[in-house]
Design brief:
545 residues; alpha/beta; seven-stranded mixed sheet; 14 helices; 24% strand; elongated
């Protein structure tokens, strides 16, 4: 058992074990609704539920809360399983669905009716909201609250048999319309939906709501600690009420923790869906989204996400985490393992006017410290490319650039001097004419020259044309509120460049890799051998833009 982590949830579990509140086997669950793809906020819950169970020698269920067929699909079921596995967690034989318990849930609802704890209500959804009351005013009883047990049992059975249209009737708990907790004011437990379910087909036309379903599933599966985010704190009395009033001899405690907020991002599935439907992003796996699929496509390692969730920690205090922390975790994970290469994002042609004959082979280490990654061959010849931003006709002393009549070293190669610039009709440079210093080869330099600038480059003969995608924040505001998210979207969140990369990076299928001075990159899922596409995972240093 780990004694390193001491957050309030792990401390609670230790106390329960020491006091024999549980029998020694800790059981948790991760219960997503299959109505969208998971995001990094879910990753925190996944790491917590699977993590604490593993630390205490327990087990975790992956249970799908599939009680709303209007929004759920097998696509989401499969994507969620893929995400959980990719993050490094295994539910083994404990894959369950709320729909596995539909018959039992219906039976427990019938028990509540038999105890005069639930009734069938004919009010519409709008009428129920109107009679619910406010935080300062009590609600009013439904006129159908006094129906007899026999009538309620008959109506509930007829609801199941499909006699009524959607919205015509609901089953409500009979608790207290004057309760200070609005969730306890006769909440709806079942509603009518004549929709095919992705697993049960047309077998059901009444479906239970989350607050009724979740606690019962927890109890049936023997969950010892039901961990959920803080928005369910006010729902805990209803969680307890349901379990206290049905015939289940097991009552898990619900324990709430703060959800993960990440600046310049949204975690709402509704807003994420709107971004996709409006064409602002490509889909659920767009690398700009905080979805796990998007992060994976971008090239973020699973270990970096686990490290990030660990560093964020588990508290009851809502927080908005800086994206720089996630970037730090990504860099820390990739720094020692990603091979180095060179890529030119915005290429500027350079012609070495004093070079003749066959190209010169150069050797470059694939990692300056990790010698196990080996080395590769570069070629230096008459034509090559440098970064357009690495040239200026003149530059200040602080700028490390190649300038007209100035010197610069080409990484792993030679020192070059720019002797001429060819511009297009608008005055922009399209080609540089340079001379290379023959006795300045890297590692064998006897020239005595000390240029300030060292530039990355690629030889035209050793270059592969590639699409290079650079990402910025998807939103311009630190905390998008969802009310005006379309105007808050950063229109420059994706910048696609047609550049050149070393052939070794493509042929060796380095994934991920570091393109020196440009950042860490990974192949995009759309990449092909003939058309490589690289996503920048993260830059080499933090940015406060």
């Amino acid at each position: 058992m780990s004694t390193l982590a001491t957050d309030f949830i792990r401390n609670r579990i230790r106390e329960d074990l020491e006091n024999d509140v549980v029998d020694g086997t800790i059981v948790t669950r991760f219960p997503p609704e299959p109505n969208g793809y998971l995001h990094i906020g879910h990753a925190k819950s996944i790491c917590l539920n699977f993590g604490v169970a593993a630390e205490f020698g327990g087990k975790t269920y992956l249970r799908f809360d599939d009680t709303n067929p209007s929004k759920e699909s097998e696509e989401f079921v499969h994507s969620i399983q893929e995400d959980v596995r990719w993050l490094g967690f295994d539910w083994e034989d404990r894959l369950t669905f709320a729909s596995d318990y539909f018959e039992q849930l219906y039976s427990f609802a019938t028990q509540l009716i038999e105890k005069d704890k639930a009734f069938v209500c004919d009010l519409t959804a709008d009428e129920i909201r109107a009679t619910r009351g406010t935080l300062t005013e009590p609600g009013s009883d439904s006129p159908f609250r006094t129906r007899s047990i026999a009538e309620n049992l008959d109506l509930f059975r007829r609801m199941r048999d499909g006699e009524y249209a959607d919205g015509a009737k609901v089953l409500r708990a009979k608790i207290d319309m004057a309760s200070p907790n609005l969730n306890m004011r006769d909440p709806v437990l079942y509603r009518i939906l004549h929709l095919a379910h992705h697993r049960t087909g047309d077998s059901w036309c009444v479906y239970p709501l989350y607050d009724f379903t979740h606690c019962i599933c927890d109890a049936l599966e023997g969950i010892t600690h039901s961990l959920c985010t803080l928005e369910f704190e006010d729902h805990r009395p209803l969680y307890d009420w349901v379990l206290d009033n049905v015939s289940i001899n097991f009552h898990p405690p619900q324990i709430e923790f703060s959800r993960l907020g990440l600046e310049f991002n949204v975690m709402s599935k509704r807003i994420l869906t709107s971004l996709i439907d409006s064409g602002q992003v490509e889909g659920w796996d767009d690398p700009r989204l905080p979805t796990i699929a998007g992060l994976r496509r971008r090239g973020v390692p699973a270990a970096a996400i686990r490290d990030f969730c660990s560093r964020v920690g588990v508290t009851k205090q809502a927080n908005l985490v800086e994206t720089s922390l996630l970037d730090f975790c990504v860099r820390a994970e990739l720094e020692d393992t990603a091979p180095r290469g060179m890529a030119v994002v915005e290429p500027l042609l350079v012609t070495v006017i004093n070079f003749e004959g066959d190209d010169i082979e150069l050797e470059a280490r694939n990692h300056p410290k990790n010698l196990e990654l080996g080395s590769r061959r570069l070629t230096f010849g008459r034509e090559l490319y440098i970064e357009r931003s690495d040239f200026a006709v003149t530059a200040s002393k602080k700028q490390r650039k190649l300038t007209l009549n100035g010197l610069a070293r080409l990484r792993y190669g030679f020192i070059v001097e720019c002797v001429d610039v060819i511009n297009d009709d608008s005055g922009l440079p399209i080609e540089l004419k340079v001379r290379y210093v023959e006795n300045s080869r890297s590692g064998q330099d006897t020239s005595g020259l000390k240029p300030k600038a060292t530039l990355h480059w690629v030889s035209k003969a050793n270059a592969v044309h590639a699409e290079i995608r650079l990402f910025e924040r998807l939103f311009n505001v630190r905390e998008p509120d969802g009310s005006s998210f379309e105007s808050d979207v950063n229109g420059n969140s994706l910048r696609s460049h047609h550049g050149f990369v070393e052939r070794a990076a493509v042929e060796s299928k380095w994934n991920p890799c570091q393109f020196e001075r440009n950042g860490f990159f990974a192949f995009d899922s759309s990449s092909t051998p003939d058309r490589p596409v690289f996503n920048r995972i993260v830059s080499l240093m933090s940015s406060k833009k």
